[in-house]
Each structure stands twice: as C-alpha cells, then as structure tokens.
Design brief:
Layout: H1 8-35, H2 40-48, H3 67-80, H4 82-101, H5 104-117, E1 121-124, E2 140-144, E3 147-158, E4 165-171, E5 181-187, E6 193-195, E7 209-220, E8 224-225, H6 232-268, E9 270-271, E10 274-275, H7 280-308, H8 314-339, H9 349-358, H10 367-379
Parallel strand pairs: 1-4
Antiparallel strand pairs: 2-3, 3-7, 4-5, 5-8, 6-7, 9-10
Helix pairs in contact: 1-3, 3-4, 3-6, 3-7, 4-5, 4-6, 6-7, 6-8, 6-9, 7-8, 8-9, 8-10
The protein binds flavin-adenine dinucleotide.
Length: 382
C-alpha cells in the first residue's frame, strides 16, 4: 500500500522542527549570512531538542530514527535557513560512513560523542584536484607500526573549523584506483593537521568551509574505517545514499521558503491596477514553482522510504538530489523575478535563498554527477 500520510510521531517531529525554524533559525538567518557567523549556539540548541543526527542508533546514544523522519526535519531546518541546515547536517554526513563501516568500538567512541555530547564532525573527501573524480585524490596514508602516516590536503570541507573529528579518505595503495582508497577517523587535534581560512562563499555563508592539510599526521591503525584498507571508497560512497535524501530535503525546504515569500509578495505588490498574482504570467510562474516543490518532496520521500525499507536507493536518491537541487535554483531565481528590483536587494530574503541554492547543484555530487549515477544505474543491466 502506498500512503502519503505521516504518522502521529512524524507529524509531531515535523512540527517541532518547524517551530524551531520559526523561533531560532529565521530570526538569525540574515545576521549569520551578513557576518559569515557560524550558528554554534543554535546548532547546540537543535541537538538538545533532538533534531540532529537522528540516524544514530540507540545502541550508541542516538534516537535511531529512520531516513523518513530525517528528511522531514531537514526540510524544515532548511526552510528556516539553508546555511544553517548545511552547517548542522555536516556531522550527520561524517557519521554516515561510520554507521555503515565502523567497528563497534569506533561507533561507541565517535558516534556516542556526537549523540550524547553534541560533538561535531566533518566528511573530508574532496581535494584541490579531485572533486567529482574522487579517485583522483592524492592524499596518501602509509602504514607505520601501529599507526598510519597521512600526507595531503582536503578542500571545501563543511564544518572543518568546528569539527571534533573527521572522516578522511586517503590512498593506501596509489596504484589500485578506487580499491586503494581507505577511510580513517581522525581526531581534529591530531598533530600535523592544520586548517585553512574560512572560505568566502557566495551563499550559505554561516556554514564554515575550509581546506585541511595533513603533514605527517599520525592516525592510530585502529581508526581505519570501512572493514579493510580496500573498503574505504565503497563505504565513503555509501554515505551518500544516506545523505542525499537529506540534501534533497534541504533543497525542498529552500524552494518552499522562496515560493512562500514570492506568493506573499505577489499579493502585496500591485502593477497595472491589480496584485501581481492576478497577472497570469506571474500566476503560472507560481504554479510551476509549486508543482516542482511537490515533485521534489515526493522524490525525496521516495528515496528516504526506499532506504527505510532496505531497498537500494542509489538511483532514487540521485533523482531526488538532482531534481530538488535544480528546482531550488530555478524556484529561488523565479522568486527573485517575482520581487522584481526588490528581489535583487538583500533587503528581502529571496536574494539570500538564491545565493544559497547554487551550492546544492555542486556539493554531495553535482547535478551532472547525479545524472551520471542515474545513467549508470539505468543502463547497468543492458
Ligand atoms: C560550500 C561547499 C561545501 C562542501 N562541503 C564538502 C564537504 O563537507 N566534504 C567534501 O568532501 N566535499 C565538500 N565539498 C566539495 C564538493 O563536493 C565538490 O565541490 C563537488 O563534488 C564538485 O567537485 P569540484 O568542485 O572539484 O568540481 P569538478 O569535479 O572540477 O567539476 C567542475 C564542473 O564540471 C562538472 N563535471 C565534472 N566531471 C564531469 C563529467 N564527467 N561529466 C559532466 N560534468 C562533469 C561538475 O559537475 C562541475 O559542474 C563542498 C563544496 C562546496 C562548494
């Protein structure tokens, strides 16, 4: 049976996240963006409210909720502010490869730290010369007794300046392609680890994005994550099946916020003797925005439901992420159009939303990469 109705617990969780967005996120969003201020206190408050890292199991101190509950919450947080949603979600992304590939001891230490103490973490895979093409990564890890010694650098790492630990992908066998890539859990105070300056990004400016350099950094061999040295890449990629429904939910929340602002404004602004939304060209624009938002949400829910049902969601998560991210860019751009000249000014939130949408087509696998994944999935049995 297909049922699009949420159960009572899901409705309550969504309502809780919405109220949190109204009370704690929206009033601060403009200030955070203008000042590039990391929303640490509000991330802590969201943690205390039980709105973050919902996928950590009860065995490790988390609530053990499903992907569906996570996307409901994430749509609301991004409706509040997409920069906040990204900053707050970085830890969940870092936790994903631990959930799928860490030992009990690793989970008990690092996932518990997140669930119980509100520790923050970052997922560090991209490098200056390797983004979409992860296998081109140059960071190397060499075994030395009970340690690995890691040298290299990472780029564009969300939350890097605030993280207590990192999930890092490095090559233990540079000649073995994907199979030579290994995952490591790295404490942020490891000697040899240094951070770059906070990037001056176009949008989502409250989120902390930095480079990281590893200079003869020692990591205990027991922090190898992913089952074996050769298991790192596959495990790191599996994380995206868990995270992409949430990025799609962020994009849906952003689109919804932009649409709601545009709808309201279209009733307030009069041109040629009637409200903007009485002009059919504007009404059709609003209608298209709404259709695309509904479709984004349905794809997002489908990918989350697949995951919760134990069905491979690689393809459905790619559909959701690609469509919702492209929709966020289109809808926020159209929202600026509905506002006319006022939309182009930072006086109104739609300009910030449009700037914030762009990165959704780039990170967590760009829109082109999602199409590559979908293409691979639909042709693999031919
Ligand atoms: C704000 C921000 C936060 C980020 N946070 C993180 C993080 O926390 N952790 C992390 O590891 N990474 C993070 N990233 C990195 C992000 O995942 C990469 O930027 C992304 O994967 C694209 O890689 P790239 O920038 O190297 O672009 P490239 O890989 O150089 O691609 C450039 C362009 O070419 C396109 N392209 C590339 N190859 C193909 C192809 N084969 N066919 C068609 N088109 C192609 C891409 O879609 C893109 O449009 C973040 C990036 C940003 C901007």
């Amino acid at each position: 049976m297909v049922n699009f109705q949420l159960d009572e617990m899901q409705e309550m969780l969504r309502e809780l996240a919405h109220e949190f967005a109204v009370d704690e996120i929206r009033p601060n969003a403009e200030h955070w963006d203008l000042n590039s201020e990391y929303p640490k206190d509000v991330i802590n408050a969201a943690h205390e409210m039980g709105l973050l890292n919902l996928h950590i199991s009860e065995d490790y101190g988390g609530p053990g909720l499903g992907s569906m509950e996570e996307v409901l919450v994430n749509e609301e947080l991004a409706w509040g502010d997409p920069g906040f949603a990204t900053a707050a979600y970085a830890t969940s992304l870092a936790c994903a490869p631990l959930i799928t590939g860490a030992t009990h001891e690793q989970k008990d230490k690092y996932l518990r730290m997140v669930a119980e103490d509100g520790a923050l973490a970052s997922y560090a895979v991209t490098e200056p010369g390797a983004g979409s093409d992860v296998a081109a990564c140059k960071t190397v890890a060499v075994r030395d007794g009970d340690d690995y010694i890691i040298n290299g650098s990472k780029m564009w790492i969300t939350g890097a300046g605030k993280a207590d630990w990192f999930f890092v992908l490095a090559k233990t066998d540079p000649n073995a392609g994907y199979k030579g890539m290994s995952g490591f859990i790295v404490d942020s105070n490891s000697p040899g680890l240094s951070l770059g300056k906070k990037e001056n990004n176009m949008g989502q400016r409250c989120s902390d994005t930095r480079s990281i350099t590893f200079d003869d950094m020692r990591v205990p061999a027991e922090n190898l994550c992913g089952g074996s040295e050769s298991g790192g890449w596959m495990n790191a990629m599996k994380a995206f099946d868990m995270s992409r429904p949430n990025i799609a939910a962020h994009a849906t929340g952003l689109s919804r916020a932009a649409y709601e602002h545009a709808l309201q404004y279209s009733g307030e602004r009069q041109t040629f003797g009637k409200p903007l939304h009485r002009h059919q060209a504007i009404q059709f624009m609003l209608a298209d925005m709404k259709t695309k938002i509904e479709a984004s949400r349905m794809l997002t829910w489908k990918s989350a439901a697949d995951s919760d049902a134990g069905i491979s969601n690689t393809e459905s998560a790619a559909h959701a992420k690609r469509f919702a991210a492209d929709t966020a860019m289109e809808v926020s751009t159209d929202a600026v159009q509905v506002f006319g000249g006022y939309g182009y000014s930072e006086e109104y939130p739609v300009a910030r939303l449009m700037r914030g949408a762009k990165v959704m087509q780039i990170y967590e696998g760009s829109s082109q990469v999602q199409r590559m994944i979908i293409g691979r999935e639909i042709t693999k049995d031919l």
